[in-house]
Amino acid sequence: MTRRSVTNVVMLTLTGACALLTVSVMFYILGYLAWHGASALSWNFFTKLPAPVNVPGGGMANAIVGSAKLLLLACCIGVPVGILAGIYLSEFAGHTIASVLRFTVDLLNGVPSIVIGIFAYTVIVLPMHTFSTLAGGFALGIMMIPISVRSTEEYLRAVPSSLREASLALGAARWATITRVVVPAAFRGILTGVMLALARVAGETAPLIFTAFGNNSWSHGWSQPTASLPFMIYTYAVSPYDDWHRQAWAAGLVLVTLVLLVNIVTRLALARKMPLSR
Amino acid sequence: MTTTDLAAPAGNGFTGVWRRLRNFDLGDSVAYSITLLAGTGIFILVGVLLVELWLNSRLARHEFGWKFLFTSIWDPIAQHFGALPFLYGTLVTSLLALIIAIPLGLGTAIFLVELVPAWLSDWLAFIIDLLAAVPSVVYGLLGIFVLVPIIRSGVEPFLQSTLGSLPLFQGPAYGFGFLAAGVVLGIMVVPFIVSVSREVLLAVPQEQREAALSLGATQWEAASQVVVPYARSGIFGSIFLALARALGETMAVTMVIGNDPSIHTSLFASGYSIAAVIANEFAEATSTLYIHVLIELGLILFGLTFILNALARLLILATVRRGTVRP
Predict the structure, then answer these.
(1) Mean pLDDT over residues A58-81, rounded?
(2) Structural element, H or E, at residue B132
(3) Average pLDDT of A245-263?
(4) Structural contact between residues A80 and A152, judged by C-beta atoms closer than 8 angstroms
(5) A122: Cβ–Cβ under 8 A, 6 or more apart, which residues?
(6) Given an 8 Å threshold on Cβ–Cβ distance, is B8 in contact with A92?
(7) Distances from the Cα of A20 to the Cαs of B107, B111, B124, in angstroms?
């Protein structure tokens, strides 16, 4: 073999090694989480409040409910704004406005999550003088907007224009065309976009540290600090107690399972051929 | 003709509004207004975000001015604040991350595009994309309990015994520090480099490869001397994108960097990053000046990531356009 073909084989093998390494990191993470998390996972984890150090049988029920409330609130803010702005971009906006808006959305998407947290702090926590579910949900809601906008726009654009024309030709007004024809045709795509956005913010911790803060007990209503799964993982992981570390592994396993499940299901659903919209 | 042309309102600006009023198609006006409201809402949101950051950092800006960026004292009790240790930490960890992620990500992308069949490439890319979906706090968790022990007992003693004469690899091996943070960040940004690089490499016209191969180049030579240079601006774009992610990444870094606001040459030493100091000290900041200092750090972070993101998008756009439009 010549030197060139040796180089060829060596370098191509190296790229293969890179790919193998990158892919195996994913399986390593999953395996490690399953190994450590599953042993700490029990019924108590889902039903009990956090226990003090050295008291066995504590759980994270309040954090699970807290995360659910935060995500519900985030959806209430992020989904309508995201979908409506996506419809605006795809169906109404002129070229210039559309590109400026798209750029702004990308800009918002690139803002570090901790900065979004600062924003929610100055707009909601400071006036209310307390950490709250509301502030945390607001921060997460803002983070959902960019992904929802872009995916909504993308899937609305994929709807063939012949569908719009047919509807308009039958005498339907544009709003009727959008709500009865275009959006239903792209519904599955829009839904997966929203689910991916939700999965992304579900694991966010940084914007919650000084908005939702944390809570060792139940959080009632929307104006009290609340526990959440990601924040619990953080506080338990950096604590010095073995017991809490085990709980953090369990919480990590639950969180990653949920997030990856949503990702896998929605992406596979997208990969299948979609009637009408693809 | 694209769908927007068809669906765009008849005329923009004043004439468009006038026509809508005259025809009195109420439903359309309502639909238009509601969606416009959402679009405008996003502009306003970003505007308010900037104004809030600017206003709520005014005390810090007035007190320290530009000197803030070049001062390395961080003493919350005496109310002396300088951003240098955090800028340094953010920079060092992000660069380390790139040193790890660029070869790994680029190698993976070349492998996925040039060597494996499309279906396998799609599946592997899918799995790598999932890496980006893992929450950063989980990376932090794995960082503390898996990576830090490995670095403390394996990597750092090894580096010290081989390259210990360099100032970069000196001092006691704690595990927590710049090195651990850089490695975690590197793993976290690899998926961004892979997915964008793969996309721009796929956009390189097949003729380019065929021309190189027909001239007798080996597969590696075609990839490294023709395909990659052709897509280089897009690859740079992916690197900027990864850098922007690394700069703003908070939780994983906070959990493994050691949180010590001082500047050390050694990568084994503990440090701090902009995002980490905000995450750690914001909720406990006692004075308004302290809060304003932390918000100014947030503003700096915002500025840095904004510039990098804008550059990245321009570069990626340029490459993908050039690749898809066949000459």
Answers:
(1) 94
(2) helix B118-133
(3) 94
(4) no
(5) B52, B53, B56, B295
(6) yes
(7) 10, 10, 9
Residues 6+ apart with CB under 8 A from A196: A147, A151, A262, A263, A266, A267
d(CA A131, CA A223): 7
Q: Is A204 at the interface with chain B, CB within 8 A?
A: yes
* Average pLDDT score over residue span B204-220: 93
Interface of A with B in 93-112 (CB under 8 A): 93-95, 97-98, 101, 104-108, 110-112
More confident residue, B147 or B28: B147
Cα–Cα distances in angstroms (integers) from residue A164 to residues A88, A152, A182, A276, B2, in the given order: 15, 17, 7, 12, 12
Q: What is the pLDDT of residues B64-89, one digit of tens each?
A: 989 999 989 898 888 889 999 999 99
Position A253 scores a pLDDT of 96
Q: What is the pLDDT of residue B30?
A: 86
Give the residue-averaged pLDDT of B140-145.
Answer: 95
* B283 in contact with A, Cβ within 8 Å: yes
Q: How far is A159 from chain B (nearest CA, A)?
A: 9
Question: Using 50, 70 and 90 to split pLDDT, how confident is the model at B286?
Answer: confident
**Closest by Cα among B286, B271, B64 to B185:** B271
Domains delineated in chain A:
21-271 (1.10.3720.10)
| Separation between Cα atoms, residue B250 and residue B79, nearest integer Å | 24
Alpha helices by DSSP H, listed for chain A, are: 3-40, 43-47, 61-87, 95-110, 113-120, 126-128, 133-157, 161-169, 174-177, 183-185, 187-202, 229-238, 242-271
pTM of the model: 0.89
pLDDT at position A54, please?
78
Question: Each residue of A21-32: pLDDT tens digit?
Answer: 999 999 999 999
Higher pLDDT, B258 or B168: B258
CA atoms within 13 A on the CB side of B298: 35
What's the token pair of residue A120? 């929610």
Q: Residue A234 — left, alpha, or beta (φ > 0 → left; ψ -120 to 50 → alpha)? A: alpha
Residue B25 is given by DSSP the state: -
Which residues in chain B have Cβ-Cβ distances shorter than 8 Å to A23? 124, 127-128
Q: What percent of chain A lies above the pLDDT cut of 90?
A: 71
> DSSP letters of B45-76?
HHHHHHHHHHHTTHHHHHHHGGGGGG---EET
CB contact under 8 Å between A23 and B279, yes or no, is no
- Average pLDDT value for residue range A214-223: 88
Q: Determine whether the interchain pair B42/A104 forms a contact, defined as Cβ–Cβ distance below 8 Å.
A: yes
Other Cβ atoms within 10 Å of B40 Cβ, number: 15
pLDDT value of position B13 = 56
CA distances from B200 to A23, A53, A241, B124 (A): 20, 52, 47, 17
User: B134, A256: Cβ pair inside 8 Å?
Assistant: yes
**What are the residues whose beta carbons fall under 8 Å from the beta carbon of A10, sequence distance 6 or more?**
none
Query: Considering only CA atoms, which of A35, A179, A174, A147 is closest in space to residue B20?
Result: A174
